[in-house]
Amino acid sequence: MRFPHLFAIRPEQPSRVSPLQGHRVLLRDFVEADLDAFFRYRADPRYSEFYEPGTAGFDESRRLVERFVLWSREHPRHNFQLAIVERTTARLIGCCGLRTRGLPLGYAEFGIELAPERWGRGLASEASRLLLELGFGRLALEEIRCVSVTQNARLAALARALGFSPLRARTGEAWMRARHWTLTDWALTKRAWSSRVFECDYAVEWWT
User: Fold this and answer.
1) 3-state secondary structure string, the chain?
2) Tens digits of per-residue pLDDT, 128-186?
3) Which of 10, 27, 123, 193 would bridge 20 by S-S if both were Cys, CB 3.0 to 4.6 A apart?
């Protein structure tokens, strides 16, 4: 994915974050105790439909949680991979992230995943909006990009609803080509985000 070069002063990147609270979900940093719940939803066959085979096992889940915890302790912090927690049950039901390491100033890559049993309820949209507001607000980002499997209609619909615009389709790795799948790059600018009008059903709490 190509990014135009930006000349800018990097804003202060805090480390630990206070929960970002929505109406039904909150976003918080990962802790080691999240591993079982994280692995449980990833073990659902519906979760791995658009992932490379073998990437949802327990060892991979443990490796990811360990990485997310380490990221949360970095200072300055470049990657914000947050747990999505359902407020009514206090259960971890997914994760979402903004990653800036290695990218030009003002840019980040966005990703989100949700437990299949929670699909179709608008929870991914609510969590995404919280995180994007964080990115364009406190992190002072100018553009956020993401990549999806083109054939993943559910994720494409979410990206469009959030204001992302498709940039191009491109070939993926060998396992994707074997299934005749491609990748789509998406982009959302700060200006486009600011022009979006959403129903206000959440409040954002920034860092302490």
Assistant:
1) CCCCCCCCCCCCCCCCCCCEECCCEEEEECCHHHHHHHHHHHCCCCHHHHCCCCCCCHHHHHHHHHHHHHHHHCCCCCEEEEEEEECCCCEEEEEEEEECCCCCCCEEEEEEEECHHHCCCCHHHHHHHHHHHHHHCCCCCCEEEEEEECCCHHHHHHHHHHCCEEEEEEECCHHHHCCCCEEEEEEEEHHHHHHCCCCCCCCCCCCC
2) 999 999 999 999 999 999 999 999 999 999 999 999 999 999 999 998 999 999 999 99
3) 27
